[in-house]
Design a protein that fits this description.
With about 775 residues, the chain is of the alpha/beta class. The protein has five domains: about 110 residues, LON domain-like (Archaeosine Trna-guanine Transglycosylase, Chain: A, domain 4, Roll), CATH 2.30.130.40; about 55 residues, no CATH class; about 180 residues, P-loop containing nucleotide triphosphate hydrolases (Rossmann fold, 3-Layer(aba) Sandwich), CATH 3.40.50.300; about 80 residues, Orthogonal Bundle (Helicase, Ruva Protein, domain 3); about 170 residues, Ribosomal Protein S5, domain 2, CATH 3.30.230. The protein has 25 helices and 24 strands. The strands form six sheets. A seven-stranded mixed beta sheet has the order 18-19-17-16-20-23-24. It is an enzyme of class 3 (hydrolase). This is Lon protease.
């Protein structure tokens, strides 16, 4: 190529959009019929034309569309096609600047100004040339495509401008950047721009190369594992063995088919299995997916036990396991009777409420045995996380289904007797409210589609017979209480405890304490003494512990070579258990002024309490002690108001209150006391004190008092009557409106005790206060 070709001042302008043409560059160009006139005009003009970059969709551009810097080219070779176009070879000669258009016929011609290449020899130029050459070699090492003859040509170029143009063409610089390089007339600045761009490209190639090396290394490792895995498969096939992973997938597929899942659940399981097949066994996701499928297959979708619908047989089983508890047994037999007449899947939600030790939990096990169902027990006491009920979502590490689904999977039955113990002791904090999560579980109208967070598919809980237990009904949220049928277990009478001892507790403790070969007999008097002097409770838990203590002491005597006892009488009890723990508070006390026996209901059953009244000089003051709650304090104030309004009727000085203060005390001050049933007791104590008439200690009373003197009904009749019997009370005064509750009590509870119904304080005073 030569740069000494004479260039006229006016040239035809050829727009090009696929490539930037630099000086000393040879480029083949295909032209069309639209641009053919430009080529013909150039051939008439010493084969010279001006080539400019004109991006866009048009083949012919106007003068204003062209950039102002282009390259003068010479057509070295021309081949025309019969269709009208052709091919020409352009050789770049020099840069030029467009001045102004001259003509548009037959093509655009313009006046130009040739821009000669500046001379830039020097130290900076040489350093830049060497640096660019070095970077090009690095780019070649990282795989930059560059023809070998071009690299040799670049090595011989010492002019920075020509080197910049050559490198710009062959290293893939974007066309708009090439156009900018074409407009930079200073060779040093142009080579600097190329150097910066080439540096960025080399850095990208280095990072890309490092990534490619790492990917290749990993792919090589995976490819090696795949090859080894395929070889292992071939070896296993030769040995007649199966691929462990495929065997696992096939096993899961078989379990899914045999699980009798609902259609909706089956679709989820099959989708998860297909996903499992695509996961690498080394991935944590594989374990999560596999565990989920295990639970889906283990859930008892259609697996259950057949109910024993023979009511008579079920009644015999309940009577065999538990003494008394007539109301509870009746409710279970009613349920079985309905099931025998109508095949319904909805189970009742029973809630056993009663003091500790009355057999609430063991009753659930007996119900399961009577119905022929499996038994599950789950304690809710202290639970604070609702995920224990509903499960965790599978996005969490270590996620599991809730305890409801877990226990059903463990029992392998969809219709067990499921006992939720201590429902009144559920906790609640920032982690959640388990009692609210139980609403869906214990609602017969919606638990047929219970959705555990982990399983995320509906499960039918309507076949499960849920039973909850509680000591108190008040702590249970109202919404949860509304979904349950409450059955109260009041406690046992002395006769009940005697029967339970001989039928259940004594044989059990003899067996557990190794006395099966040394049968031990307890007399009725011994059991009565243990019941009255060593235990004072509604249930039989402490009673069982005392019997166990006696059995242990007898076992110790036998192991130390002593003579084995054959019988335990009342006289032996104190020697084995030590001094009495409880005393008959009522029977051992004499009648006193201002001291009245009352009855109370507590979480551990009924109990007696004494209300004491004392007077002192003062001015209408009232002091209340004994850890009384707000309700009992209000009852005391109401009782005092009633008495002050009727001083003349009760023989009390009219001006007594003007010069005296009253102090009302309920002993055992460390024990909190509250409830709406102490009003009549407090009023009677005040009347006894102020009238000077002693109150009978063997008469106990209960009832709330109005300001007009009427006695309102109370709750816990059975518990309070049993407490009176344990304390040696002879007569119990109950509100007249509790007559119906009294009729529901068993005959043996009222044996040896006289129950009288009263409507007003006048009747109470007449019965309990003795003459002065």
């Amino acid at each position: 190529m030569s740069n000494n070709v004479p260039i006229p001042n006016v040239l035809p302008i050829y727009p090009i959009k696929e490539q930037i043409v630099f000086p000393y560059m040879v480029l083949p160009v295909f032209f069309t019929t639209e641009t053919a006139p430009i080529i013909e005009e150039a051939m008439r003009n010493d084969q010279l034309l001006g080539v400019v970059y004109c991006p866009g969709s048009k083949n012919v551009c106007s003068f204003d569309d062209h950039p102002r810097i282009g390259t003068v080219c010479k057509i070295n070779q021309l081949i025309k096609f019969p269709s009208g176009g052709g091919k020409a070879t352009f050789e770049g000669i020099s840069r030029f600047a467009l001045n102004s258009p001259v003509s548009n016929d037959p093509c655009l011609t313009s006046s130009i100004r040739v821009i000669p290449e500046q001379d830039s020899q020097g130290v900076v130029s040489e350093a830049l040339v060497q640096s660019v050459n070095a970077l090009l070699k690095i780019a070649l090492a990282y795989g930059q495509p560059l023809p070998e003859d071009v690299m040799k040509m670049i090595d011989r170029i010492e002019h920075p401008g020509r080197l910049a143009d050559m490198v710009a063409v062959y290293i893939g610089i974007p066309l708009d950047v090439q156009q900018q390089l074409l407009t930079i007339l200073d060779p040093i600045e142009r080579l600097k721009s190329v150097f910066i761009h080439l540096t960025n490209e080399v850095q990208k190639m280095q990072v890309k190369g490092e990534i490619q090396t790492e990917v290749t290394k990993r792919l090589g490792k995976n490819q090696k594992e795949n090859i080894l895995r395929e070889q292992m498969k071939q070896i296993q096939q030769e040995l007649g063995e199966q691929d462990p992973r495929q065997a696992e997938v096939n096993e899961l597929r078989t379990r899914i088919r045999q699980a009798n899942m609902p259609d909706e659940v089956l679709m989820v399981a099959e989708k998860e299995l297909r996903r499992l097949e695509q996961i690498n066994p080394a991935s944590p996701e594989y374990t999560v997916s596999r565990g989920y499928l295990d639970y889906l297959c283990a859930a008892p979708w259609e697996k259950g036990t057949e109910d024993n619908l023979d009511v008579s047989k079920a009644e015999a089983v309940l009577d065999e396991d538990h003494y008394s508890l007539k109301e509870v047994k009746q409710r279970i037999l009613e349920y079985l009777a309905v099931r025998s007449l109508r095949d319904t899947t909805k189970g009742p939600i029973l809630c056993f409420v009663g003091p500790p030790g009355v057999g609430k939990t063991s009753l659930g096990r007996s119900i399961a045995r009577a119905m022929g169902r499996k038994f599950i027990r789950f304690s809710l006491g202290g639970m604070k996380d609702e995920a224990e009920i509903r499960g965790h979502r599978r996005t969490y590490i270590g996620a599991l289904p809730g305890r409801v689904i877990q226990e059903l999977c463990r029992a392998e039955s969809n219709n067990p007797v499921f006992m939720l113990d201590e429902v009144d002791k559920i906790g609640q904090d920032f982690r959640g409210d388990p009692s609210s999560a139980l609403l869906e579980v214990l609602d017969p109208e919606q638990n047929d589609s219970f959705k555990d967070h982990y399983m995320d598919v509906p499960f039918d809980l309507s076949k499960v017979m849920f039973i909850t237990t509680a000591n108190l009904l008040d702590p249970i949220p109202h919404a949860l209480k509304d979904r349950m049928e409450v059955i109260r277990l009041s406690g046992y009478s002395d006769e009940d405890k005697r029967q339970i001892c001989f039928k259940y507790l004594i044989p059990k403790q003899i067996e557990e304490n190794g006395l099966a070969e040394f049968p031990l007999e307890f007399s009725e008097a011994a059991i009565a003494k243990i019941t009255q002097d060593y235990t004072r409770e509604a249930g039989v838990r402490s009673l069982e512990r005392k019997i166990a203590a006696i059995c242990r002491k007898v076992a110790k005597e036998i192991t130390q070579g002593g003579e084995a006892r054959q019988r335990i009488d009342a006289s032996d009890v104190e020697a084995l258990l030590g001094p009495c723990t409880y005393f008959a508070d009522v029977a051992s006390e004499e009648d006193r002024v201002g001291v009245v026996t009352g009855l109370a209901w507590t979480a551990s059953g009924g109990d007696i309490l004494f209300v004491e009244a004392a007077k002192m000089p003062g001015n209408k003051g009232l002091t209340l002690t004994g850890s009384l709650g707000d309700i009992m304090q209000e009852s005391a104030k109401a009782a005092l108001t009633y008495v002050r309004g009727r001083t003349e009727d009760f023989g009390i000085d009219a001006d007594f209150f003007e010069h005296h203060d009253l102090h009302i005390h309920v002993p055992s001050g460390a024990i909190p006391k509250d409830g709406p049933s102490a009003g009549v007791t407090i009023a009677t104590a005040i009347i006894s004190l102020l009238s000077g008439r002693p109150a009978r200690r063997d008469i106990a009373m209960t009832g709330e008092l109005t300001l007009s003197g009427r006695i309102l009904p109370i709750g816990g009749v059975k518990e309070k009557v049993l407490a009176a019997r344990r304390a040696g009370v002879k007569t119990v005064l109950l509100p007249a409106r509790n007559k119906e509750h009294l009729a529901e009590l068993e005959e043996n509870i009222l044996e040896g005790i006289d129950v009288e119904l009263v409507e007003s304080v006048d009747q109470v005073v007449e019965k309990i206060l003795l003459p002065r």
